[in-house]
Amino acid sequence: MKYIIVGLGNFGSSIAQKLTALGNEVIAIDDSMEKVDHFKEKVTHTIRMDATDELAVSDLPFEETDIVLIAIGEDQGSNLMATALFKNLGAKRLISRAINPLHKKVLEAIGVDEIVHPESETAERWSNKLHLKNVIDSFELNEDFSIIETQVPEKYVGKTIKELKIREEHDLLILTIIQREEKTTQIGEKEKVDKIEGIADPNVELKEKDILVIFGKNSDLDSFIGEKSSEKNQDD
User: How far is CA 128 from CA 16, 47, 109, in A?
Assistant: First the structure.
């Protein structure tokens, strides 16, 4: 996959390096020449650029880029300006870093696809989440094993966990099932609430919007997610 990472601070540089190490193409942007030089051997491409300069940013390969991550954290104004600019230029999937609750609301108003909170979420977690297609969330236990949340594949809807044979065929373990519901708060805001089924019952029948929580080796998880992505592309 191809990524654009804007901002080479601790969070942005960690993700850029991790995604590069996983075999992805990463374009990392920062307005500091010192940071660009420091990471040029560790990231696919590093470019010194003002991410709020529309003329400069418009030359980036948006059509070939799968995900843009605005990782600027030290300057809220630059973060918002860059996010709005990349949104207007047609980023396919735009993720931005929130500094505080008000900043989060402004990003939501701009229309970003997802919001990052580095203070409570690690770069490793987000690297896995971005690298593995169709993954809703992930938690890296070590460099070899992870736990991921992923949408139930269409071909598995209506089947039981026992019938899937994920353990036998993929060497993966389904830990539990999450049903994600949207509810309205007392002040009228929409929020997503997770209903967790507990330890997965092998005889439970999977529904269309269920989320599987799966444990296994990163290579096996990558293979399983890749198989899902191929099936989706064939259907499309």
Answer: 12, 24, 27
Q: Are residues 165 and 106 in the same domain?
A: no
Considering its fold, how many domains does the chain have in total?
2
Q: How confident is the chain (236 residues) per 10-residue block, as mean pLDDT?
A: 94 92 93 95 95 93 94 87 92 90 84 79 65 66 78 86 87 84 66 70 85 86 67 51
Q: Which residue type occupies 204?
A: V
φ, ψ of residue 211 in degrees (nearest 5): -115, 125
**pLDDT for 4:** 97
Q: Tell how far CA 53 is from the center of its chain.
A: 26
- Quick one: 110 and 144 in the same domain? no
Last residue in a domain, options 127, 151, 181: 127
Closest CA to 113 of 98, 89, 96, 128: 96
Between CA 227 and CA 188 the distance in angstroms is 40
CATH of the domain at 182: 3.30.70.1450
Q: What is the pLDDT of residue 229?
A: 47
Cα–Cα nearest to 179, from 156, 163, 201, 198 = 198
Cα–Cα distances (Å) from 4 to 21, 27, 58, 125, 168, in that order, read 15, 5, 13, 18, 37
Separation of alpha carbons 236 and 7, rounded Å = 34
Residues 207 and 185 in one domain: yes
The CATH number given to whatever domain includes residue 64 is 3.40.50.720
70 has which bridge partners?
Answer: 6, 96
